[in-house]
Specification:
The structure holds two protein chains of two kinds.
Chain A lengths: L3 H26 L2 H6 L1 E3 L7 E5 L4 E3 L17 E2 L14 E5 L7 E4 H7 L2 E9 L22 E10 H7 L8 E5 L13 E5 H4 L5 E6 L2 E2 L9 E3 L14 E5 L6 H4 L3 E3 L17 E3 L6 E4 L7 E2 L5 E8 L5 E7 L7 E2 L1 E2 L9 E7 L5 E11 L23 E6 L1
Parallel strand pairs in A: 5-14, 18-25
Antiparallel strand pairs in A: 1-2, 2-3, 3-4, 5-6, 7-8, 8-11, 9-10, 9-14, 11-12, 11-13, 15-16, 17-19, 19-23, 20-21, 20-24, 22-23, 24-25
Chain B lengths: L2 H14 L18 H8 L6 H5 L6 H13 L7 H15 L3
Classes of the chains: A alpha+beta, B mainly alpha.
């Protein structure tokens, strides 16, 4: 039996490894070049994040940013397609609303946006479609994200449907299109523009948000206003949104017709975007059920005969987390974890499982979330060339000593 | 939004645009034939960590696909006569044979 001092040292060692090891674990599976080019770097107003690219800025949250259910604004990931990102002056910013799917267009100032419509708050996960792309096997080109191209925030804004109601949406409107402030350095570079189906735009939870966790949106996360599409991947959450157009025809652009598309029928998704479907591919829609272990990491050492915990978060595309099961025996048996406070069906849900490891040796810890529809995380990657929807069950190898 | 309004917005955007976050450190590519060409063309639109990050797992065909996507979709000013040199360099230094 270890004496008290050696026991404390062992525990401290386990904690220290846990604090640094999870990022290493992600790195171990990333392309070698992504390992070499990633550094901890701070954008103005942000804590150090994992830099994937400087220009345009693509910065990932480290796993320890997810130890709380709400991701702090200064640790929230940053993802841009185009490198000219204007500093927006709140006073002169305008949001143009119109398009051939409306009767009457108009413009809103930030003040009018806040004053003229009912404010709404909700907690929702903003997750890049390519989160965990770097872990794809085989590797695929793109931003080589690890686990942290996502965050969970309390968004405050107004309902998109209230804005559209003022413009008198026509029944012919099939899609609602957004564009934002960022531009490429060349005139030839296509403007980043996205659309969502009219039915999703009219969902009471789809917002134009101007606050994040009780503060104005950070510049890097879309100040002064961004679209919030709860349940759907972040490609639709237009930052620095300056135009909302209702369209009677599907939006045609590289960002809709070529990028952000998944093979049809390969993933367990429910929401369809029929106006943009082709014979073989469809735009990515809702986030797949997923989980992340946040407090233990590969190589962690824990004493046998002592109670220990594994904690993490789980989330999905808005059906809500049904349960999270944890296995400590290579998946032979599973125990239900205890779920934490419920912040709503679009939010991260914290969970914890406590157990007493009985025998010394290797242990594989896995967590597997299921949503309220009964859909669970897969054990094998559903490979796709753009590297989307990676929700494979994590395996963490620890030592019981 | 009509054309005039949209143009107005583009002008405003152009006037207050800043090119990049202040912290960008120039990414040095591996020395080699055509390194200067790759640096000059690719860094117009993005930092060169994009090249390093996506290594080493792309074949010559895959690297050529990336270069042509940048030309065709993103409007990268790369001459047809430069493509082979750029793809050679990327495959040699950041790809698989």
């Amino acid at each position: 039996m270890p004496n008290r001092r050696s026991f404390l040292r062992t525990v401290a060692g386990g904690v220290a490894l846990a604090a640094t090891g999870l990022v290493e674990r992600a790195r171990a599976d990333l392309p070698q070049g992504a390992l070499e080019s990633a550094i901890r770097d701070s954008l103005p107003g942000k804590q150090p994040l994992i830099k994937r690219s400087y220009r345009p800025p693509n910065y990932e949250s480290p796993v320890d940013a997810f130890s709380d259910v709400i991701t702090p604004n200064d640790r929230f990931f940053v993802r841009w397609h185009l490198s000219n990102i204007p500093r927006i002056d709140a006073g002169s910013w305008r949001l143009a609303v119109g398009g051939d799917g409306t009767e009457s267009g108009f413009e809103l100032s930030l003040e009018a946006l806040k004053r003229d419509f009912e404010p709404v708050e909700l907690v929702a996960v903003c997750q890049c479609a390519g989160n965990r792309r770097g872990l794809s096997d085989p590797h695929v080109p793109g931003v080589e994200w690890g686990y942290g191209a996502m965050g969970n925030a309390r968004w405050r804004g107004v309902r998109l449907r209230d804005i559209l109601a003022r413009a008198q949406l026509k029944k012919e409107a099939v899609e609602i299109a957004f564009s934002g402030g960022d531009r490429g350095p060349l005139d030839a570079t296509p403007v980043f523009a996205k659309s969502i189906p009219a039915w999703k735009a009219l969902d009471e939870n789809t917002l134009v948000a101007y606050e994040m966790n009780g503060a104005p949106l950070p510049h890097w996360n879309g100040f002064p206003a961004r679209v919030v599409v709860p349940g759907w991947t972040a490609t639709y959450w237009m930052k620095q949104v300056n135009s909302i157009r209702a369209l009677s025809q599907p939006l045609s652009s590289f960002w809709m017709n070529t990028a952000y598309r998944i093979p049809k029928g390969k993933f367990p998704v429910i929401d369809r975007f029929t106006s943009q479907e082709s014979d073989t591919t469809t735009p990515i829609t809702e986030i797949l059920v997923n989980s992340l272990i946040t407090d233990i990491a590969d190589g962690g050492r824990f004493p046998s005969g002592q109670s220990m915990g594994v904690r993490g978060i789980a989330w999905d595309g808005g059906y809500g987390i049904g349960d999270v099961e944890v296995s400590i025996d290579e998946g032979r048996s599973w125990q239900r974890a205890e779920l934490g406070e419920n912040y709503g069906r679009y939010s991260f849900r914290s969970w914890e499982h406590r157990f007493v490891p009985q025998t010394a040796g290797h242990m594989t810890v896995m967590a597997r979330a299921s949503n309220a529809r009964g859909t669970s995380q897969p054990f094998e990657l559903i490979f796709n060339a753009p590297g989307y929807h990676n929700n494979v069950v994590q395996k963490i190898a620890i030592e019981i000593v | 939004m009509n054309i005039k309004q949209r143009f107005g917005w583009m002008l405003i955007g152009a006037c207050i645009a800043i090119p990049a976050p202040g912290g960008e450190v120039p990414v040095k590519l591996a020395p080699g034939e055509h390194a200067a060409l790759v640096q000059s063309r690719c860094s117009i639109c993005h930092s060169l960590d994009y090249v390093v990050m996506d290594s080493r797992f792309l074949s010559r065909t895959a690297w050529e696909g990336e270069v042509r996507k940048m030309m065709k979709v993103m409007g990268a000013p790369v001459a047809e006569s430069e493509v082979a040199s750029i793809v050679d360099y990327l495959t040699e230094n950041y790809g698989i044979k």
